[in-house]
Amino acid sequence: MSKDMKFLVVDDFSTMRRIIKNLLNDLGYANVTEADDGQTALPMLQAGSFDFLITDWNMPGMPGLDLLKAVRADAKLAKMPVLMLTAEAKREQIIEAAQAGVNGYVIKPFTAVTLKEKIDKILEQRANAA
Amino acid sequence: MTTAITALREEYGASIAALAGALAAGDELRFIEELDALVKRRELTLFGELRKLTHDLQSALDRFRLDPRLLTLAEKEVPDARHRLDHVLKLTDEAAHRTMDLVEKAAPLADRTAREAAEIVTVWKRFRARNIEVDEFQRMIERMDVFLEAARCDMDQVRGNLSEVLLAQGFQDLSGQIIRGVMKLVSELELALTDLIRISKSGPRTGKPLSDDTRRGFGPAIPGVNNGPAVSGQQDVDALLSGLGM
């Protein structure tokens, strides 16, 4: 995986999408697309050739957990790295996300360093598994 | 002729006729008896109505008291909402101060760079016009060495501060989620109060089923608002996930 990777950032707050997009740009990832909830994101994922999904949990329409489950259930998308970036802090929710197959979980408010660490770790694990 | 008049005539006609008969015949005792019977029948009807009213009022009060949703709203969620809004206030306050701190730290660095560049430009122009002494040229070169190094450091710092300013705007997402939660509570409260008004007018109530909160999400954890066991930060999340083998 290289810096050309295509990211999809899903969050219902446009300010948060901008923040994540800017941080990704700072990390050298220039190819970032945005969606405002799971319902909008899923067809984009199915149609586009995204390499990495960063999603919020609590969104109107389709929440992030449902999006994660839909991604894992879709043969074409099942292996996509998914990082959950959310304010949801209940232990049972984190366990549920892990069981649904999330690759990383970052809690808001977060720092640029944490975001970088988690993305790097996921990509490293991918590289080792390949 | 209306049915009401017919009913009244059926109910009271005989008594009135008996009263009139007794009065015409000068039968005082019978007149008093008939009058007593008439008043007693009227009182019974009134008591019946009053009993029915009391019963309706009692059951409305019972339903009010037993409505668990209203109870939760009043006892837990309204105070929770106050905590939530307090937290929004805190978040916006922190973000505003953090942003201003960063701007205040970055501004002198930008000023210094601009001021130093302006001074070098003056000497530089003389150099371009070939109007400069050798020792002045030497000083300009030394000054430029210092300036370029300082500008690099300062602008790194300014860039870093700008990234932090960007990150500080994340409060909008968190406070927005909390405000949405409170708005949902206000609509539920509105619904419950509308129901209450309807109950007081009689008729059955229809409760709105609650959404699946865990699936949809609770929003940010708020100090003083308990939704069950929650993590306190990224370290907790990492520990929990590593416990799960991730």
Molecular structure report:
With 130 residues, chain A is of the alpha/beta class. Chain A has a single domain (7-125), classed as Response regulator (Rossmann fold, 3-Layer(aba) Sandwich). Helices cover 46% and strands 16% of the residues of chain A. Chain A is built from five helices and five strands. Chain A has a five-stranded parallel sheet, with helices on both faces. In chain A, helix 1 (14-26) links the parallel strand 1 (7-10) and strand 2 (32-35). In chain A, helix 2 runs parallel beside helix 3 (64-73). The N and C termini of chain A lie close together (11 Å). Chain B is mainly alpha-helical. Chain B folds into two domains: 3-64; 68-203, Helix hairpin bin (Helix Hairpins, Orthogonal Bundle), CATH 1.10.287. Chain B has helices spanning 3-25, 28-66, 68-128, 134-168, 171-200, 213-216, 234-243. The longest helix of chain B is centred in the middle third of the chain and has 61 residues, at 68-128. Chain B is rod-shaped and about 150 Å long. At the A-B interface, helix 1, helix 3, helix 4 and strand 5 of A face helix 4, helix 5, helix 6 and helix 7 of B.
